[in-house]
Amino acid sequence: PTMLDQDILLFPIHHQMPLHWSLCAVYPHSGHIHYFDSLGGLGAGVMANIAQLMTDLRGRYAPAAPPVAWTTWPAGRSSPQQLNGVDCGIFLLLSADLLAETLPLLFTQRDIPAMRIKIGVSILGGCIWYCPELWCVDEQRRLSRWTVPTLPSRSPNPLTSSPQATPGLTS
Asked: For residue range 62-120, what is the model confidence (pLDDT) as tens digits?
C-alpha cells in the first residue's frame, strides 16, 4: 500500500510571510483537497501545489490508475478562526486530529487554553497525538467542552505527583 491508499492525507503548511501554519487535507479516493486556515486564508496556491504533488505521486506509484481531476475546497472563514497571532499551530493540530477521527471542526478560540494542556498531557502520557481517553465526544459526534484530563493509568501524572528521588543523583 502507498499513501494514495489512505482515506485522508494531512499536510501541515508553514507560511514564511507572515509566519503562520495552516492545514491541507487530501482525500485521495474522492479527489478532494480541502484547505483550513485559522486566519481565513483561501490557500489557492497551496492547493494547486498539493494537487500537482498528488498527480505526480499517482503517476509514480499508481501509473495504471485513471487520472484524477483534483477538486479544491477552500474553507476560508468557515474554518475555526483564531483571535490572536500566536495560536495557529494549536488550531492546526486540533483540526488535523479531528479530521483524522472524522469529527467536525467545532471548536473556538475559547477552547485553545485547555487544548494546550491536552497536548502537553498527551505527550507526557506517551501518546502523540491522539489519546481517545482525553476527548469528550457526545452522541452527535461533537466535541463537548473541554475538561482537564488525567494521564492514562500506565503513567504517573506529572501534574499531581511529587518528584521521585533518582538513585545516583543529588540535588
From this structure: 888 888 899 999 887 789 999 999 999 999 999 998 899 888 898 899 989 988 888 88
Q: Are 148 and 114 in contact, with CB atoms under 8 Å apart? A: yes
Residue by residue, DSSP assigns 11-71 as: EEEEETTTTEEEEEEEETTTTEEEEE-TT----HHHHHHHHHHHHHHHHHH-TTSPP---E
- Taking the CA atoms of 118, 123, 128 and 131 in sequence, report the sign of the dihedral they define: negative
Q: How far apart are CA 161 and CA 158, in angstroms?
A: 5
For residue 51, which of 79, 75, 23, 26 has the smallest C-alpha distance? 26
CB of 25 within 8 A of CB of 70?
no
CA 106, CA 142: separation in Å to the nearest integer? 7
Q: Residue 17 corresponds to which cell in the numbers above?
A: 510571510
